Amino acid sequence: MTTRHLTATEIADFLVENPSFFQEHASVFAELRVPHPNEKRAISLGERQILSLRARNKELEQQLRKLVGNARSNQKIGEQLHHWSCRMLAEPHAEQLPGHIIRSLTEVFDLDSIALRTWHLIDCGHDDVDDADIQFISSLSKPYCGPCDSQPVLRWLSEPAKSLAIIPLYLQPSGDCVGTLVLASQDEDRFSSDMEVDFLQTIGELSAYALSRLPLTPHLQA
Questions:
Q1: CA 104, CA 127: separation in Å to the nearest integer?
Q2: Which of 185, 153, 181 is nearest to 168 (CA)?
Q3: Is 177 buried (19+), middle (13-18) or exposed (0-12) by CB count in 10 A?
Q4: Is the Cβ–Cβ distance between 49 and 36 less than 8 Å?
């Protein structure tokens, strides 16, 4: 007669469904030895459980440190954004806003290079923007972050860069894309493809509304 051996899954299911097993068979629990997760020796179930709890505790501590670090980083960025907004609101001369936006963003966020270009509704006096540039920027529903690759906006930068953020400038409620801010860094990890873009979107909205104080482009003034 063939003896059927229980599978590991069946044994595990039995123990889950019968939590009193080790209480009723205390000697088995005390004598049972299992492999050490990191060493070539056997340990008791109690020791194995302690090691598992320690490993889990270490993992949770690492997650907590990461959350605290992210919170501090977000707080710092929030303070920088507030400071930048205050400086921009304090600018009395609208024609100074384009240069002011570039200078203050460079200083406050410690960036290597920034480019600002506008079109259609806002005139900042740039003549190096073509239809392909406008079509590309207007196709972005949110800021692009990542490596430079062969982005056409690179020609607007004053310094070489390894990563950048391309922020489309939209005017609400019309939803018109009126330009773009390009933030560039020589640090390839400064603007990564997986980074959150909430702060960048806020910068874009604030910049667009600030620039709306400028005169309309000539063909829209009549």
A1: 23
A2: 181
A3: buried
A4: no
DSSP letters for 200-211: HHHHHHHHHHHH
Reduced to 3 states (helix: H, G, I; strand: E, B; else coil), residue 80 is helix
Tell me, what DSSP letter sits at residue 25? Answer: T
Q: Can you list the positions of beta strands (E) in 68-203?
A: 113-118, 144-147, 163-171, 176-185
Query: How far is Cα 199 from Cα 184, in angstroms, rounded to an integer?
Result: 15
pLDDT digits (tens, 9 = 90+) for 155-212: 888 888 899 999 999 887 667 888 899 999 999 989 988 888 888 888 898 888 888 8
For 109, the token pair is: 């966020």
Which residue, among 206, 101, 190, has the nearest Cα to 145 in the 3D structure?
190
3-class DSSP state of 172 = coil
Tell me the whole-structure pTM to 2 decimals. 0.64
Contact 121, 178 (CB under 8 A): yes
Can you tell me the distance from the alpha carbon of 3 to that of 7, in angstroms, rounded to the nearest whole number?
Answer: 13
Question: Does residue 98 contact residue 88 with C-beta atoms inside 8 Å?
Answer: no
User: Residue 92: which H helix or E strand, with range?
Assistant: none
